[in-house]
Design a protein that fits this description.
With 313 residues, the protein is an alpha/beta fold. Helix content is 46%, strand content 19%. Strands 1, 2, 3, 4, 5, 6, 7, 8 and 9 form a nine-stranded mixed beta sheet that branches. Helix 7 packs parallel to helix 8, helix 8 packs parallel to helix 11 and helix 10 packs antiparallel against helix 11. It is globular.
């Protein structure tokens, strides 16, 4: 099995992060067939990467500006059997690629996602930050499986797909995930959620697999560890979920979210209150953050749904 590792990049401001990501891929126990760096409409960065990494394939995003276009460009350029995606501000542990590849041993598996841990720039998790909302910083969150298990969708910064299925379903749709507008304003997401649901709808019986042995660390800046970003990210997630539900139907588009809201979040609030009663006062902050996060995500979803309905009327 041959794996093409795709890293989408867009700014020189992340140069050191990009270097760390590439080196972590080069240091895998199971070496990738190829490393593809997709540059998002940045000629200077494109030239610099070509000079720095002559052993990698450096290509320019040939689609609309943004992460979805970059992922589609990487898949089109890949020649491996598997296309694995790694965020440009993440580092993969040495067994990452091996674990992803092993997940494809079952022919029904079309996508595999790994475990993403936050690497806080401050050196520690903010005490108010609930593990249930680690998805706001692109990481595995409490409520996801802890063992290898089928899931509805993988998280895009630590995921792999059989190459042929990406083109088969039309790739990642633009207008849902991060675009240039999203980078400047709201931190949108969910392009991989919509893609995975669409893929499952097109291929009944196809499996998306969570593989906790495929571990990466995702860098979380001080700005993203703040409450303002947390709230903004929750609202943006709601907007994105409205787009996903519009594209693939609310039944599939919100199936995992219902269980998360009904089970995971109430338990998180109770856990936070219990921690506070046992002397860990920031537990009240975590409980409050869960309530605020749910409220802002719901508000974003309602606003996004209303905008879509108005736009179509």
């Amino acid at each position: 099995m041959r794996s093409s590792v795709v890293i989408c990049v867009y700014t020189e401001e992340r140069w050191k992060d990009i270097q760390a990501a590439v080196e972590s891929v080069k240091n895998q126990r199971r070496r990738p067939y190829e490393i593809i760096l997709v540059v998002d409409h940045n000629p200077d960065l494109n030239l610099r990467l070509k000079q720095e990494y002559r052993d990698a394939l450096v290509v320019e995003n040939t689609h609309e500006k943004g992460l979805s276009g970059g992922k589609n460009t990487g898949a089109a350029a890949a020649s491996g059997d598997i296309v694995a995606y790694l965020d440009d501000d993440a580092v993969a542990e040495p067994g990452w690629l091996e674990a992803l590849e092993e997940g494809f041993g079952d022919p029904t598996v079309v996508g595999v996602g790994g475990l993403t841990r936050p690497l806080w720039s401050t050196g520690r998790r903010p005490r108010w930050f609930p593990c249930e909302f680690d998805w706001t910083v692109g990481c595995t969150y409490r409520g996801m499986p802890t063992r290898r298990a089928p899931i509805r969708n993988v998280m895009g910064g630590n995921a792999a797909f059989r190459r042929e299925v990406i083109g088969e379903v039309g790739g990642f749709h633009t207008g849902i995930g991060r675009s240039v507008q999203g980078r400047r304003s709201r931190p949108l997401g969910c392009e991989e959620t919509e893609f995975c649901i669409r893929l499952s709808q097109r291929r009944p019986g196809a499996v998306m697999l969570f593989e906790p042995g495929a571990v990466i660390g995702h860098k979380v800046s001080a700005q993203r560890a703040g409450f303002a970003y947390f709230r903004s990210r929750c609202y943006a997630e709601g907007l994105s979920k409205a787009l996903v539900a519009s594209n693939v139907g609310a039944g599939d588009g919100l199936s995992s979210e219902r269980a998360y809201v009904v089970r995971t979040l109430p338990l998180g609030v109770l856990r936070g209150v219990g921690d506070a009663l046992r002397g860990d006062l920031p537990g009240l902050g975590r409980a409050s953050a869960i309530v605020v996060g749910l409220a802002w995500t719901t508000w974003g979803y309602l606003m996004g749904t209303a905008r879509l309905k108005f736009g179509r009327s």
